């Protein structure tokens, strides 16, 4: 980046203001936590998904796969997955760490309700909450079924897209817990077929495809199957999971080829493979996916973050398949070392504190990367 003296001073001032704003938001969020249940989002190095015991028993909930830890204040903490949305309506799962309490599943959903504290926490991540302000939540979990009762505020959402995102986010968040495989909705204590703008809340819901891309008009749904791909958001701060319908088998070869095509909405998500780069070969040997790209792949380092988020999305896409736990890169048949540690498998796609830190690092790199 070529910057004049005045431009550099403006950028430095902007960065200083950004750091100050983040610090103020963090302090405000910490001050509000006892009132709103905000998250102390410290990254976990253990497994990504939380687990909950049935809440109907009113017994303490075990953190399970999410792992427990003890904070500096001596309070037991547990990791949980909160579902937010970005400015384009994509659902984004984020791992947060919250104080251990009875009913972690309900506490997780409360973090998704619009409020001063929750909205500030979401804003730190460049994201937004999905449930309307003042929504009250009752939750009962028994024999794998989570019955959730949402208050009448959910009948006043802006449009069908907001309703659909809310329903999907609630189902995704609840089915992150081992004790939940089905979700049933009540609205203000009553069964309903649809919400105000026509979104169905009838029957039971199971974990479904997240951020489903529109199928091509020429693609018969009976001849296709869903595949999850991972792309960086246009903000460069989070990874967004996207479901794409593909004709070929849902294996790592197809996944990398589809990833190389880029996101369907290129103005909302960022591509993983540089423009003009081709895929030469994909091999899997002894749990290692070996990806060979054409020479244009080296242009990845020209991204504002040095290609780190793109590499993370590439690893997440490959290692979702059983038997693959590592990725190796090749360019024109020769080993390519993008950067030490970049190809390690993340504990989770998005970790709250890391998002804020990475955003500041990216902006700093952009400011000081001048000739």
How many individual β-strands? 13
Assess the beta-strand content as a share of residues.
15-25%
Which structural class should the secondary elements be placed in? Answer: alpha+beta
Largest sheet geometry = 4 strands, mixed
Tell me the domain tally: 2
- Average residue-wise pLDDT: 81
Q: Within the largest sheet, what's the order of strands?
A: 4-5-6-7
Q: How are helices and strands ordered from N to C?
A: HEEEHHEEHEEEEHEEHEEH
Specify the number of helices: 7
Terminal CA distance: 7 Å
Helicity level: 25-40%
Low-confidence stretches: 28-66
- Principal-axis shape: globular
Radius of gyration, whole Å: 21 Å
In summary, what is this structure?
By secondary structure, the protein is an alpha+beta fold. The chain has 7 helices and 13 strands. The radius of gyration is 21 Å and the shape is globular.
């Amino acid at each position: 980046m070529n910057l004049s003296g005045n431009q550099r001073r403006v950028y430095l001032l902007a960065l200083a203001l950004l750091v100050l704003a983040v610090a103020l938001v963090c302090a405000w969020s910490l001050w509000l936590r006892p009132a709103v249940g905000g998250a102390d989002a410290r990254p976990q190095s253990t497994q990504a998904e939380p687990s909950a015991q049935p809440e109907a028993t009113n017994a303490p909930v075990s953190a399970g796969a999410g792992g427990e830890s003890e904070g500096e204040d001596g309070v037991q903490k547990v990791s949980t997955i909160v579902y937010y949305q970005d400015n384009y309506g994509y659902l984004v799962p984020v791992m947060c760490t919250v104080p251990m309490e009875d009913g972690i599943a309900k506490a997780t959903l409360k973090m998704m309700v619009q409020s001063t504290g929750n909205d500030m926490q979401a804003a730190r991540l460049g994201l937004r909450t999905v449930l309307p302000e003042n929504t009250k939540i009752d939750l009962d979990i028994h024999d794998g079924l989570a019955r959730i009762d949402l208050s009448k505020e959910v009948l006043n959402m802006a449009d069908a897209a907001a309703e659909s995102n809310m329903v999907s986010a609630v189902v995704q968040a609840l089915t992150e817990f081992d004790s939940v495989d089905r979700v049933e909705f009540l609205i203000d204590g009553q069964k309903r077929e649809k919400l105000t703008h026509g979104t169905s809340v009838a029957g039971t819901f199971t974990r479904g495809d997240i951020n489903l891309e529109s199928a091509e008009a020429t693609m018969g749904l009976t001849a296709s199957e869903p595949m999850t791909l991972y792309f960086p958001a246009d903000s460069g701060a989070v990874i967004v999971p996207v479901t794409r319908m593909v004709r070929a088998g849902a294996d790592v070869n197809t996944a990398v080829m589809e990833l190389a095509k880029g996101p369907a909405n290129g103005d909302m998500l960022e591509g993983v493979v540089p423009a003009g780069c081709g895929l030469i070969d994909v091999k899997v040997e002894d749990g290692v996916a070996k990806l060979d790209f054409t020479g244009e792949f080296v242009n990845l380092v020209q991204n504002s973050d040095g290609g780190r988020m793109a590499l993370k999305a590439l690893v997440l896409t490959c290692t979702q398949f059983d038997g693959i736990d590592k990725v190796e890169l090749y360019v024109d048949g020769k080993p390519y070392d993008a950067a030490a540690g970049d190809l390690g498998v993340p504990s989770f796609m998005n970790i709250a504190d890391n998002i804020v830190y990475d955003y500041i690092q990216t902006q700093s790199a952009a400011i000081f990367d001048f000739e």
